[in-house]
Specification:
By secondary structure, this protein is of the alpha/beta class. It has a single domain, classed as Peroxisomal Thiolase, Chain A, domain 1 (3-Layer(aba) Sandwich), CATH 3.40.47. Helices cover 35% and strands 16% of the residues.
Length: 225
């Protein structure tokens, strides 16, 4: 197994944080992500394409777009690995509600509710051809999902992979089911055997396997600090 695995070129997106300074303050717990349903505009995509996308899918497309803009070494054949703890939870709720109340599901709504929809839409929007994997962590353990996501690099099957995480704001109906309302957040980064720094990359971070993160927020903050 390789001794060192590096994460670089982090591209995050969340409501209420729009500048590098905002993200630096968030990493220091001096600013908070807004609990809002706002999403990126995706002005570089066709209006018909983005019109029906959820907050989750829009955030995912945005961070993948930003990462590829930032990293000239990435190609359209780069492999993507997508992690989400809740997936298209808002669409899934609406589908379940429709099943109960109307005894039917609209095909278009169902096709956009599947777990891999956000990363699949990203490849369509950006013309990516390297394929992707979508990982749901058992019992919500982000550290397990992270290990699985980077396993191709750990096993030296891939020199690098594009790691993508995203979760949207949960529907209000679920507020009583959670102790603390999860934040809408997405980020993309390169996980690599190579620790060299690209022109637009401020730093690389070596993954400490003795201190695996318990949450995506914790992991992102270690990358930004």
């Amino acid at each position: 197994m390789p001794k060192d695995i590096f994460v670089k070129n982090v591209s995050p997106w969340a409501p209420g944080l729009s500048t590098e300074e905002d993200w630096n303050l968030w990493a220091k717990d001096e600013k908070q992500i807004s609990l809002e349903k706002t999403a990126p505009a995706l002005e570089y995509t066709e209006p018909l394409f983005r019109r029906r996308l959820s907050q989750l899918s829009k955030m995912t497309v945005q961070v993948v777009h930003d990462l590829f803009q930032k990293c000239p070494t990435l190609s359209k054949n780069s492999k993507l690995v997508f992690i989400s703890l809740r997936g298209e939870i808002d669409r899934e709720f609406k589908i379940n509600k429709s099943l109960i109340e109307d005894k039917m599901i609209l095909p278009a709504g169902f096709s956009l509710s599947v777990f891999n929809a956000p990363i699949a839409l990203s490849t369509i929007a950006l013309g990516l051809k390297g394929g992707y994997s979508a990982i749901y962590p058992s019992e919500g353990k982000f550290s397990d999902a992270l290990l699985m996501a980077i396993s191709p690099v750990l096993a030296e099957e891939e020199k690098e992979v594009v790691l993508v995480y995203a979760d949207e704001l949960i529907p209000e109906v679920y507020n009583d089911c959670v102790k603390e309302k999860p934040f809408p957040l997405a980020f993309a980064s390169v996980v690599s055997l190579d620790n060299s720094v690209d022109t637009d990359c401020a730093k690389t971070t070596k993954i400490d396997f003795s201190k695996m993160p318990n949450s995506p927020e914790e992991f992102l903050k270690t990358l930004l600090k």
